[in-house]
Queue: 4 jobs
Job 1
Amino acid sequence: MRPPRRSLPVLALLTLAVPILNAQATPAAPPADPYASTYRPRPSGPVLITHATILTAVGDRIEDGSVLLRDGKIAAVGRGFQAPADAAVVDARGKWVTPGLIDAHSHLGVYASPGVDANSDGNELTDPVTADVWALHSIWPQDPQLPLALAGGVTAQLILPGSGNLIGGRGVTIKTVPGRSAMDLRFPGAPWTLKMACGENPKRVYGERNRAPSTRMGNIALTREAWAKARDYMDKWDAYRKALEAGKDTSQPDRDIEMETLAGVLRGEILVENHCYRADEMLIMIDMAKEFGYKIAAFHHAVEAYKIADVLAANGICAALWADSWGFKMEAWDGIRENIALVDHARGGCAIVHSDSAEGIQRLNQEAAKAMAAGNRIGLKLRPEDAIRWVTVNPAKALGIDKMTGSLEEGKMADVVVWTGDPFSVYSRAEKVYVDGALLLDEKDPAHRWRTDFEVGPEVAP
């Protein structure tokens, strides 16, 4: 029996007007950027937000300040400038303005809601090394959790594979916006990332199947083996290209999708995001990175980061952390609430508050507030000006997008949140959210509330 017909949601009707590009044949040689971003900013006019308390994420707060958004960029921040004649003026008296929040560790879209097996697409648990899989290819843009993240002020997020494998595959940075495909969400110009994991997860998954790895030493051995193969693969392709440039007749090496990603890391084109809890294991992963010549952008979860905060800072590695999640397994046992503050306190430290949670992503500001309070209890004298970095410019740095977003500076993307009050108060909400200068959320205006087709569809069915 055929299901009853239903009318298409308005958003779907509008997006059907977008032209679809013809598929292109995959070339034999690795393409420069497969599955390129098709994101386009929404149309927007100039906006002047006035009389606000402003946290720029790169300096002291500005009281009774203004932010001018124009052509999708931050045009001015400060005091004493006038609105262009055609600008919409937002009186933010009594309100706070910040950059859009950035979640450095999200699984929205790959573990979509409803949380059923059919929507569980984050872990390819068929081999401990799956560098060939990409989170981009699992993202469901209709995940109803995405609008909830936007309502929490999150304008960008890194979507990662799960942590069941030693090398889980590529992650992708997205804008928290509506789209028909994952490429419509992909953050333009953001580098790809590689998800790695150490510790309990991979050894448990494969140990229970009587497969390697089943120990921590097995974890390291198999990961090193993968990097050794990647080095050989990269050398073959480098030799091939060098021979071509010299005009020599030479055979093209076979293409290997898994090795392409790993070679991209070795060339510095793909950032490593490493799930790792214990301090001793993070030190081993740093040594491995030095052995094979790649750099770790950030350790994720890292409940013992406070023990090696100086080492992380010296190596330019960020730590993406929870405010107070600990003790749920042995490697999480030594977590402390002061972890984020202590990582931040190290000279050159890069602390990040992340969610790893469809619920936590809706209140990253509150998680940062908890971490700030914990640091202040031990005398670190943290301010909102410090805590805002943990959910804006620091995650932007770990994702390689800090030159484009993450702070309120002239020329950067106009990813901006107007809060009803101090964003580190449990009573404050994101009232307005702008992405590239376009108003995507206004809690007072139903016309600016994003709802996915998945949510709207059942309501319009007869």
Job 2
Amino acid sequence: MIDKVLELQAERKVLVLYSGGRDSTCLLDVAVRIASRESVRALHINYGLREDSAQDEAHCAAMCERLGVPLTVRRPRRPESGNLQAWARDVRYGEAALLADGSDIAAGHTATDQVETILYRLASSPSRRALLGMRPREGVLIRPLLSLTREETQAYCVERGLEWREDVSNESAAYARNRVRASLVPALRQIHPAAEQNVLALAELLRDEGDVLDAVVDEVLGGKPEIPLAQLRELPTALRRLVVQRLADAAVGRPAPGTARRADEIAALGDHAALDLPHGVRAVVGRGTLRFESQTKGQAKPAPINN
């Protein structure tokens, strides 16, 4: 199994996002075996959202002591309102970015998570990017277990005698991702036994084709953060959308979903105009040249994520 692990390298420093579940427990042990104990640190976020959060933290501390891995624990204050899952994700990656200090940040996403992510995005986001899934590496963020299924990480932990904690919220139908896991994936399996493998194969194919499209966008932009409106209007519709999305993402330092769908509207702007878009993006035209900027200048940009 360990030969299927991605991105981890001997002696390369890595910060493991450690929840105490089976996947992150597998990841922590594999990281120690591949990168060496001296190169591994762990981060546990105690969100305080469940009654047994303290037991999760204690378990993580005990496992890290057993493996000889330094553990940092953060206990953020729960917001009074808003999307709790989004808040937890932002806290996790934000704290990791502050602590990483040049090391890779390893998340325990598996091939099973990949399938669920693609299906969820397919249903919730009308975007080509929804089908691309997660990459093994995005900057300093790595996903070493992305070629392994959840069943394989469990088998690894059993074989190695590694205990893990079960998060009962993963079974709650209150979360859309859990409904995908409990209902949609089994339904697809009934339609075709290789449904999950086919989803993963399609994502890999589209990522390869996406690299080709990225090269075309690179050629159009020539490394510039802007484009003349006249040139944008002459592009084929699909390429115009890709160029607009690339410029918007770069301006805010993160994905700005939905900008591409406004490409025709943006191309129709006058030579001196501005258009506010979702996700804190503003299209600005000056002297016939289009650029994008953040509507929240001066504020810290969220850490890049992904699930």
Job 3
Amino acid sequence: MLLERVRAGGLLAPAAPVVVMLSGGRDSVCLLDVAVALAGAEAVTALHVDHGLRPASADDAAACAALCERLGVELVVHRAGAPPERGNLHAWARGERYGAGRRLAGRRGALLATAHTATDQAETILYRLAASPGRWALLGMPDEAGALVRPLLRAGVTREETAAWCAARGLAWREDPSNADDRYARTRVREGLVPALRAVHPQAEANVLRTAERLREEAAVLDAAVSQALHGRDEIAVAELAALPAPLARLVVRRLAEAATGGLCARAAARLDDVLALGPADAALDVGDGARAVVRDGVLRFTTTPPRAVGRRA
């Protein structure tokens, strides 16, 4: 049973405060109902973020309010500011959601729960595999990262199961038409790639998820090897780096780059040969993603890439 699987996952506990991200879609409606069943209505706060990007966004907020009234849950609505004129609109919207969620959860001393499912995980892995290199693309989303938890993902709940739960409980949900818009890469993965893989093998999604689970276990071993190579340092001699097996050296380069920038540096590992070519002489190289490799006295360190100077025309 879905409820028992989520209970067994241990991310939602009786009376433990939790903020549930509530879009109004089937997955988040299911998660909110399950959270109330496991933690109790008084421990649950729902957060709806209105990005104001669709004419129906007010109807989404109203549907969330009606659901929360039925379940006896407090609802907080965050209305996002104006979207950027340029840049990735989805990234902006995601930043608004998670930013508002983390702030509210922090004030409440609560966990922040999102309604990602096993179906979302499979689609995420397939998308990242196509869009970015490296084993990190295959690891997928963690089911727990600090105060951020994904109870349905840990329980292996699928999108079909959340729909069945809502239908059985008489819970209405909202459909976002952008989810069917093939202008978005994620939609093309969902509507095109996933069905094609199912046609190859009916257990395609489950096999993707099992592969990711095993890779996450193996990633812990690889991370330990990187830590052993660095011995707690935030630098390494170029000669020492060159003596490591190339796969381990690439991981070391990425670890150092990400420690320096505080973000993902997927391209750093691919620049291993260029970094080694710097040699023992003092030199520097921008490796992408805001990371700069710097060699001084034969020792490699990473810093952030400084902003470009804006020159003036004569």
Job 4
Amino acid sequence: MADELGLPLEYQKLPEYFDAHNTNDNTEVINRIIEKILREHKVEIVLDLTCGTGSQVFHLKKRGYKVIGADFSPALLDIARKKALKEKIDVRFIDGDMRTLKVGHFDAVITIFNAVGHLTKPDFEIAMKNIHVNLKDGGIYVFDIFNLEAMTDSVVNDFAMDVRSTVDDAQIHAVQTSSLDRETGRLTSYDHLTIQKGSEPPKEYKSNFSLQVYTAKELREMLARNGFETVYQYGFDGEKFVEDKTLSILTVARKQ
């Protein structure tokens, strides 16, 4: 999906460690905020086009929503399906790309946790057109992405990560640094993972990938070009959006 921008190691080679690095306290916060937005718009049927291992799908399903999850990563979907089986949750997961997958007509489509940042700008517009097709008239599209105007040098430096964690019998040491090209709006992260399983020699993995980030105005203009009206823009925590302060933009747009 993102050949030009690259992808994190957890997508490329190490899907079994995806949840360890992508599920945290913020996950439940954003899940509750998404649910609040969907409830306010009387949403019943949801398509998560970038569901990963299913965090939003399971949260919404357990609260009575009809949900389908889709992702371009078969490995992540395999984990999601195993979770559903283990928890005895009847939910459908589909292999597919947000730019092309057509599943039906939904009250809402969601793509959460900077998922759209893995697309180039032209590809995001293609995805918007496809999301438009998957929505009922008046349906809403909910997504988040980093806010370019708030990304000072200090903020980018704060993205640096040096984390140790344990998954089953594996000890993981993850180091990440980032840089931002303000002209292109691309945030590039450099990953170095060391993984030691039991008494085996440690293995090292290195990669880099970029996220396309946007200003709030840029997103509104793109949405308008592709058949959407921007309803409102929040911070990722659901608080009031401040143009040059709020780090992530949570956007709600309506199909026109």
